[in-house]
Amino acid sequence: MKLFLEDSKIVNKLPFFYGWVIVFVSGIILFCSAPGQTYVNSVFLEPMLNELDWSRTTYSATYTMGSLTAAVMMIIVGRVLDKFGYRLILSILCILMGLSTLWMSNVDSIYKLFIAFALLRTIGQGSFQLVSTNLVSTWFIKRRGFATGISSLGQGASMFVFPLLAHLLIQNFGWRSSWQILGIIVLGILLPLAIFFVKDSPEKVGLLPDGVQKNETDLNEEITNEINFTFGEAIVTKTFWFLVFSVIATPLIITGLHFHHVSILATKGLGSGLAAFTMSLFGPTALISNFFCGYLADKIPNRFLMACGQISLILTMLWLVTISETWQAVIYVSMASLSMSLVHTSYTVIWANYYGRKHLGSIRGFSSSATVGFSALGALPFGIIYDRTQSYDQALYYLILIPIFCCICSLMATKPSKRLVTEK
Fold first, then answer.
1. pTM attached to this predicted model
2. Stretch 148-160: mean pLDDT
């Protein structure tokens, strides 16, 4: 009770809505997810293989298995978030991230590598993403899309900063010390924010979402009458499954394109230097497109934005087939970033819009398990099809069916009715 009063007193003294502090912290959470993301792990690939004398296949298979383990763990993480709240769980996750990077720095066997990947992917790619997006969705309703777009800038900044930082650290300190330094960075930045600035919901500190005042009758009634589905109620709606399958193309295909980026451009006659340059553009282009898509998410029905994201992915894949010049590769990266931003922002917002804030951890934890799982499989279809056909273009043609399917699922994901669920 005393802690509640102290928190309420502090946040109510601010000249602006405390939700914007939450948006800032959520962006930092995404920024600090880097040690568990593919764009950082790929930088460590060569130096680790050179020292440990493992095959590329062994390393990739272990990474995939660790990611699949993370997918299963997300269901548990979601339920734990609902039960214990964001502040406590994020603080624990920060400590675990530090311990995971320390573990990775001492890897000398395959089973240790698997444990490291399982932990890093569960925490970085899965849990940090879930905590960040759910926090914003809990603090905002009317401006949920815009706030999500702002917080997503942290992801773009992370994609731009951490690959270069990891490369410089490895060059100067070796890969083992570099993992330790990354862990210290995450702990030093994120743990104090988690402990002192994260508040589980506006209601718990005497506020309302969006900074609505209690005398604003219409908006206050909308918040009071907010419909909240339990996980059990949500999972029996058709919309739940349309949403789950509406985005599987993005983690699957974008991860595959990232993983095979250098090889794909090489088959187009473009060198590794250009490949590295264009890979670095994903971060800045994501910064721009995330902001733009966040604004749109409050103006346009999110299922239409999700469908537009899948159409953008289809066009990206078709464009990639045709490229042969540097400027075309730059446009390809921009199109891919726009697709990711459209899907990520609208997909994050739509869950809270449809199913409410109260049980969002359990509901999004399940959907995140699918996203992380398909991301884990991303490199495989491109590799298998290329090995059989000696053509990435053939892989793109075959896999284009997936975003078409996702586009249809997006359009069919209409808002569910809790009354119909209750009547059943």
1. 0.88
2. 90
